[in-house]
Here is the input.
Amino acid sequence: MYGGNTEHTHFTTLAHITPANVSKLKVAWTYQTHDEFPGSEMQANPIVLDGVLYATTPKLHVFALDAATGRELWRFDPNNGVAPLSRIRHRGVVVTGDRVIFNYRNRLYALDRATDKPILSFGTNGWVDLRAGLGRPIEGLSVSASPPGVVFEDLLIIGSSVPEALPRMRLPHREAGKFGADCDRKSRHGDGRRTEVRR
Here is the structure.
């Protein structure tokens, strides 16, 4: 779970590492993303589930590693090899059911956690445009998110960064990867969203 628990306190109840033995820890493996570029940074909070570690690189590639050995299992590039024009500050992914959910700028993706392939039933061909449904042409609109969000029942709840001139809050309907117009609310505080992540 992103943040360690539902409160995101980064606390774990595991007792294997204690003040008495922490000085004896040794590096088990390292993983090089080979994704650095001038000004880049990596702020992803890795998630380990069923022996697999999931995270993102400085260029926002999503990767899965064998958590015991560091061996790369798969890697997904949402930008098809095109380098980003600027630094992207990103905190990680959400893993729920059979999928890995993350956003790349204005796109919210759902990937098959076993194969890294987009889940085509989610949104349009595996992704949702976070700019859609704001009541104006999407060209030129800017919507992005750094934190991966949280899952509540069958919904992904994710904050986003939008220009201050967008006076709407949208709470998407429960259809997979679709926003519901019946949930529109006026707001001075940007765009809050939720979308179904059906497991």
About this structure: The two ends are 16 Å apart (CA to CA).
